[in-house]
Design brief:
The chain is α/β, with parallel strands linked by helices. It is 22% helix and 27% strand. It has six helices and 13 strands. The strands form two sheets. The chain has a nine-stranded mixed β-sheet. The protein has a four-stranded antiparallel β-sheet with strand order 10-11-12-13, covered by helices on one side. The longest helix has 16 residues. It is globular.
Length: 307
């Protein structure tokens, strides 16, 4: 029966990583989607929800607008400018530390189940960096990635997966809604960088958690993160935005909370990039989410069947 654990964040805003164990549950195999080019396409499902079950856990993490504290610093091969920079490359350099975090998640899984995790599913996988690091870490590992944005998936294939001879061998990328069924169950499912906050209605998020639960092996672990704290529940002025220099000052990563509705907790966040030559990429990424609290998430996970 699956489990999870919660750790306090190192610095504000709080980011708690939830991992959840899956209860035993039968599921019929779904037909395999047809493959089109490098991506597999399946129909997009309209959001409607039906209650079921879930479970919670959390681990130490980092704030939304800051890079990972443990990320290895590399010398920048060049100075970036707004005219030449690739926003996906900048995002990966600033925000993601897949190699180290996957090592921690793998250790957590082994501690819980006394066996190794081999199959990883990443929802909202974007450029598939985590998937690439997963299959690089062990030749017996394989992965499935889901995302609705085909251009971002194609970028990930070109820059992260093609050098590994993927997808097609140990990696499958599905250009589909995370609510649609997948025909392979996983040991680990990830929903990171608050991506699941795209579900603004309780029933929609519950339905997503149920879909994750049904897609996990009996000994399965669900890892997701969240951020919070009073400072991140009100609009930021330009001076209040979080700024972090990346790659020895090659560029600056800016986290911006542009809107926060205290009544329904709807939020708008932007990521900006600023460069030494004075140029910038404003609103390189924009996220219109619902701000979910930890008690809400815990209740929903338990209701979806996690323990």
């Amino acid at each position: 029966m699956p489990q999870g654990l919660m750790k306090a964040p190192q610095r504000v805003p709080k980011q708690d990583t939830f991992q959840s164990r899956k209860k035993k549950q039968k599921q019929q195999q779904q037909p395999k989607p047809k493959r089109t080019g490098t991506l597999e396409k399946a129909k997009t499902l309209t959001l409607t929800a039906t209650p079921r079950h879930s479970k919670l856990n959390s681990a130490q993490g980092n704030p939304p607008g800051r890079p990972h504290a443990k990320a290895k610093s590399k010398k920048a091969p060049r100075r970036y400018t707004a005219a030449k920079a690739d926003k996906h490359e900048l995002y990966q350099l600033a925000v993601q530390c897949a190699e180290e975090e996957l090592e921690w998640i793998s250790e957590l899984y082994e501690d819980l189940y006394k066996q190794r995790a081999l199959c990883l599913r990443e929802d909202f996988c974007g450029t598939a960096l985590w998937i690439a690091e997963w299959v690089k870490s062990d030749p017996s590992r394989h992965a499935i990635g889901l995302d609705l944005d085909a251009p971002t998936l194609e970028w990930g294939v070109k820059h992260n997966l093609a050098p590994l001879g993927e997808p097609g061998n140990r990696v499958r990328l599905l250009n589909q809604n995370v609510l649609d069924p997948v025909d392979t169950k996983s040991h680990l499912t990830l929903a990171l960088n608050f991506s699941y906050w795209v579900f603004k209605k309780r029933l929609d998020l519950l339905r997503y958690f149920i879909a994750v639960h049904e897609g996990l092996e009996e000994k399965g672990l669900f890892v997701l993160d969240a951020y919070g704290g009073p400072r991140y529940m009100e609009k930021m002025t330009k001076r209040e935005r979080d700024r972090t220099k990346i790659e020895n000052g090659a560029f600056t990563y800016v986290w911006d909370l542009a809107k926060f509705n205290a009544i329904d907790h709807s939020i708008v966040n932007h990521i900006h990039f600023e460069f030494p030559d004075g140029t910038s990429l404003q609103k390189a990424f924009t996220y219109e989410w619902r701000f979910w609290s930890l008690p809400e998430l815990a209740d929903l996970l338990q209701e979806a069947g996690f323990s």
